[in-house]
UniProtKB/TrEMBL annotation:
Keywords: Coiled coil, Kinase, Phosphoprotein, Transferase. Pfam families: HATPase_c (PF02518), HisKA (PF00512), PAS_8 (PF13188), PAS_9 (PF13426). Residues 116-153, 233-303 form the PAS domain. One of its GO terms (molecular function) is phosphorelay sensor kinase activity. InterPro entries: HATPase_C_sf, HATPase_dom, His_kinase_dom, HisK_dim/P_dom, HisK_dim/P_sf, PAS, PAS-assoc_C, PAS-like_dom_sf. PROSITE patterns: HIS_KIN, PAC, PAS. It is an enzyme of class 2 (transferase). It catalyses: ATP + protein L-histidine = ADP + protein N-phospho-L-histidine. NCBIfam families: sensory_box. The keyword Kinase applies. This is histidine kinase. Residues 305-356 form the PAC domain.
Length: 723
């Protein structure tokens, strides 16, 4: 440019002068009385009228100008302007050639030469052609752009260098209509490569009156690529904005929402219209407003902020949000704030629940009297409960116990054994459950314990174990006392068994030996009455009767005593017993008495039992016999026998409408030889109910009576299902 004699300026898009050649410096000084300096505006050089027209033409022509502007009454300022491309094909500046020409001699040979120089050296591909298509002239830039020589260009048509399609057709129609076109089309290179280009074509009439077309073409491949990249980036950003599962939004510096995605709209709880009319600050919970406002101001000043806040939607739904805010820059100026918010309400609730559960867990283990401790693979304590750190170690807080190892509170001799034991549990994965151990606490007190060690893994597969030590010193002492008591009981049991055996032998001998004299007394009294009855007076006869009756009753008492002593000692086999059949047999044995009293017997459903049959039969016989014996003389006897199943036993009931029992004698009737009536009224020795109680006790059940004096009695007894 320095060797060029034509005045040339280079400007940018803002019309600031970047560089110039010497001819331009002289031209401007002589014609505009200005000195050129870098960044000097064109409006400071040209007149206001020229500057205004130049800028309009520059804007409408994308920097391509070939015009004359009125400079004086006799001169025009001729300006040729074209873009300057860098090595990458991008427009880096604009070159301006200046020339003063006579208004009557605008097209001089010299002007033509200068114009040709400008065209030839322009970085734009410039074509001079017939409006119908044939190329007349091209510059070097066109040859470089399309790959054809000048001679080759002359043989080409318009469609050889511009892709024939609907866009080209529309562009030509526009140019033919208004004499000019400015359009993006597709260029075709010699090597067959297509490329996007911007075409500016004007139809004019030359000095010979012929129509010509001046066309400038710019390769906009790089620009298009950048636009595609920008568009892809914009689409990616928009996709990230629209389809982000988190809430994404933006608001201006006043806090008014500008844009938001669907998730953000869900949080706001409104339509797009009322959401856009909303300000974010009223949606912040009252307790967080001041803090969030300060944070947002920092984001609006250029800082990236992250925080948690309580957010309340327009419908009142409360959420906890994890928010990140960062500034929006436009032309290096902050115009608003972008935000990304994640709903962490559930996470916060879970964390709160975990804290509560941990506090509950902490409270539970601290109130457990057992010693609880957790150690890691380095045998360091990482958790203890109150009983361990305070009662065992004597530490005031758990923190004072953490990090300790067996070396810190065990004798050196025991340390290796404990570490080996712990290592085996952790490595083998086999727990130790309730192993008896002896320990010594910080007061040197020795205790018996049950020790449990359970292996576990935590963190990044690290090993550890949970230990539970239960103090069983008191239990051991009670066991020792119980063992001593058992030995004493065993001794007493053996003595009692011996005594019972001697008692049985005595009872047998006594019953046998006592019965023999009684039989003799009874026999001789009978013989005496038989042989000498006619010789004895009435008084002697009465004495003989009394003696015989007494001996008979004494014999019955002895037999009843023998029967009572045998209850529970007989070797009876447990068998399946149908109690209904068994009761029927008892009733058959009592048939004469039942018929004599015209008694009514009512049998309910009775179960099958696994029990000793003979004692059960004696139990029913005694109770039914009593019901028949103690009947009321005023009414017909009615006896009801029934059973009811419970969880672990069968309950039986034998009720009657007899004479009943006074309240004071309800417990007395089960005591041996306790009679409530004189023997002249009712026979018996008073041992029947005592035998019933002993049988029920032997079965493992209970027996009792409910009675209303004068109305009748109901005897109840239970027999366990597992006899």
């Amino acid at each position: 440019m320095k060797k060029c004699t034509t005045p040339v300026l280079k400007i940018n898009e803002a019309y600031k002068i970047l560089t110039w050649n010497f001819s331009a410096e002289v031209f401007v000084r002589e014609n505009f009385n200005k000195s050129l300096v870098t960044q000097l505006g064109i409006s400071k050089v040209f007149s206001a009228e020229i500057s205004k027209k130049f800028k309009n033409d520059f804007t409408s022509g994308d920097g391509i100008i070939h015009k004359q502007y009125s400079f004086s009454e006799t001169k025009n300022l001729k300006i040729l302007c074209s873009p300057c491309l860098n090595e990458n094909g991008d427009v880096e500046a604009f070159s301006i050639c200046l020339k003063l020409v006579d208004k009557n001699d605008a097209v001089s040979p010299e002007n033509i030469i200068q114009a040709k120089n400008v065209v030839e050296n322009s970085s734009l591909a410039i074509f001079l052609s017939d409006p119908n298509g044939p190329v007349i002239e091209v510059n070097k830039a066109a040859c470089r752009m399309f790959g054809y020589t000048f001679e080759e260009f002359k043989r080409l048509s318009r469609e050889d260098i511009i892709l024939k399609n609907e866009n080209l057709k529309n562009a030509l129609n526009q140019r033919n209509l208004v004499g000019e076109l400015r359009h993006e089309l597709t260029g075709k290179k010699k090597n067959g490569e297509n490329f996007p280009c911007e075409v500016h074509s004007v139809i004019y009439t030359n000095h010979n009156g012929e129509q010509r077309t001046s066309t400038a073409i710019i390769d906009i491949s790089d620009r298009k690529n950048q636009e595609i990249i920008a568009e892809n980036s914009m689409q990616a950003f928009q996709s990230l904005f629209d389809y982000n599962p988190d809430a994404v939004y933006s608001f201006d510096l006043m806090g008014n929402f500008i844009d938001f995605n669907e998730t953000a709209l869900e949080f706001i709880e409104g339509t797009k219209e009322n959401a856009k009319a909303a300000n974010f600050l009223p949606l912040i919970a009252p307790e967080d407003k001041e803090r969030v406002l300060n944070i947002s101001l920092k984001a609006a000043s250029g800082e990236i902020q992250r925080y948690h806040t309580n957010f309340i939607g327009l419908k009142g739904t409360r959420r906890v949000l994890d928010v990140t805010n960062f500034p929006i820059y436009v032309n290096r100026k902050i115009t608003g704030v972008y935000g990304i918010a994640k709903d962490i309400t559930r996470q916060v609730e879970i964390e709160q629940k975990l804290r509560e559960e941990r506090n509950m867990f902490r409270a539970i283990i601290d109130y457990i009297p057992d010693h609880i401790f957790v150690v890691n693979q380095n045998h360091e304590i990482i958790l203890t409960n109150y009983a361990f750190y305070n009662n065992y170690l004597g530490a005031e807080t758990e923190e004072n116990s953490l990090g300790l190892t067996p070396k810190d509170f065990f004798p050196e001799k025991e340390v290796l054994e404990i570490i080996d034991d712990n290592t085996w549990v952790m490595n083998s994965g086999v727990p130790i459950i309730n192993r008896e151990d002896i320990i010594r606490d910080f007061n040197d007190k020795i205790d018996y314990t049950l020790l449990t060690k359970v292996p576990f893994k935590f963190g990044d597969n690290k090993k550890g174990l949970v230990g539970i030590s239960r103090n069983i010193t008191e239990i051991k002492q009670k066991e020792e006392a119980l063992e001593l008591l058992n030995r004493e009981l065993k001794k007493h049991t053996e003595e009692l068994a011996l005594s019972n055996k001697e008692l049985e032998q005595f009872a047998y001998i006594a019953s046998h030996d006592l019965q023999e004299p009684l039989r003799m007394v009874t026999s001789f009294l009978t013989q005496l009455k038989k042989k000498y009855s006619d010789q004895l007076d009435e008084k002697a006869q009465q004495y003989i009767h009394f003696a015989h009756d007494g001996a008979t009753r004494m014999r019955q008492i002895i037999l009843d005593l023998l029967e009572y002593s045998r209850v529970g000692r007989g070797e009876y086999q447990v068998v399946e017993v149908n109690t209904k059949n068994l009761v029927s047999e008892v009733l058959l044995l009592q048939k004469r008495c039942i018929e004599a009293q015209n008694a009514e017997i009512k049998l309910g459903e009775l179960p099958d039992l696994k029990v000793e049959e003979l004692p059960l039969k004696q139990l029913f016989s005694n109770l039914i016999g009593n019901a028949l014996k103690y009947h009321s003389k005023d009414r017909r006897p009615v006896i009801e026998i029934s059973a009811e199943e419970k969880d672990v036993y069968w309950g039986f009931k034998i009720s009657d409408n007899g004479i009943g029992i006074e309240e004071a004698f309800k417990e007395k009737i089960f005591v041996i030889f306790q009679r409530l009536h004189h023997r002249d009224e009712y026979e018996g020795t008073g041992i029947g109910l005592a035998i019933c109680k002993k049988i029920v006790d032997h079965f493992g059940g209970e027996i009792w009576v409910e009675s209303a004096y004068g109305k009748g009695s109901s005897f109840y007894f239970t027999i366990p299902k597992q006899f």
